[in-house]
Amino acid sequence: MNPEAPNPAAASPDAAALTAASPGALRGKVALVTGGSRGIGAAVCRALAAAGAAVAVNYRSSEGPAKEVVRAIEEAGGTALAVPGDVADHAAAEEMVRRTTAELGGLHILVNNAGVAKDALIYTMAPDDWLDVMRVNFGGVFNCTKAALPHFMSQGEGVIVNVSSVMGERGWVGESNYAASKGAVNAFTRCCAMEAARFGVRVNAVLPGFSPTDLVAGLTEGQTGKGIRRQIPMRRFGSVEQIAEVVRFLAGPESAYMTGSLVTVDGGAMTALGLGRPN
Ligand code: NAP
User: Fold this and answer.
1) Which residue has the higher pLDDT, 102 or 20?
2) Within 6 Å (CB) of ligand 1, which residues are found?
3) What's the pTM?
4) CATH number, domain with residue 239
5) How far is the C-alpha of 91 from the C-alpha of 239, rounded, in Å?
6) Which is the closest atom of ligand 1 to the Cα of 38?
7) Does the active-site annotation cover 178?
8) Do 25 and 49 form a contact (C-beta atoms < 8 A)?
9) By CB neighbour count within 10 A (0-12 exposed, 13-18 middle, 19+ buried), where does 125 fall?
10) Choice among 2-16, 44-58, 243-257 with the minimum mean pLDDT
């Protein structure tokens, strides 16, 4: 190959987008991150802000931690806003979108990250515990997507990233409600991508494996954590920053031709057959 020859890719709009994939790639964009007060969501807020986006940091009850995320972003020279609201409540989701557009001047990126777990075996699970998990994990994705979509469609631009889980594609004892809610998110991601593509709106999902946060402390700490880590091909848990970096990629111009994708970030956990070594 002649290194002097013109590179045809350099002239395409996608190539221009790729060169724009720099720390300022999201400058001028506004993002709403649900469950941005802690864990993966807080890391996503920081990553999007570092790429130049103004960020609405949603929380349900952790006002202090949400304001701390806002303060850290502002101290680093960015723009952020703490927005309370329960994603399981459709009216609250609409209010979050309204406040974000009113106070940050628009909305271009929605990260549906808020999630809960209420683990139990099916025969002992309280009926409210499957419904609560479904209402937040899947209902929240539906509510916020429905609230943001008309705005995205009318401006002919928008990106949605759903933080799902590898559990949505696999079985795990004691997580039937959680896994079912994430399986629903995965199916919804594909359908939403198909409905929204013609309006210039992309919809993808990130499927983390295990990343130490409050949500999974019971699985990542102590002997249980050791036992799980041993079975992950990369032999370690992912950091919240490693998950957030993939969310940022899916929210930005580098992934301009991606929609309907379920991207695993799990150290290879989903690639294993799951039977263990033959000894
Ligand atoms: P986390 O540390 O427990 O944080 C959960 C976040 O969700 C908090 O900001 C919380 O807000 C918010 N939240 C919960 N219910 C809400 C509601 N009804 N309305 C608005 N916000 C709500 O959990 P995480 O581990 O970062 O999990 C984030 C996402 O990643 C979840 O969807 C989870 O299922 C997914 N995930 C995590 C892992 C992992 O290993 N950590 C693996 C796979 C998937 P408050 O602070 O106000 O309570």
Assistant:
1) 102
2) 34-35, 37-41, 58-62, 86-88, 113-116, 136, 140, 163, 165, 208, 210-211, 213-216
3) 0.93
4) 3.40.50.720
5) 33
6) 9
7) yes
8) no
9) middle
10) 2-16
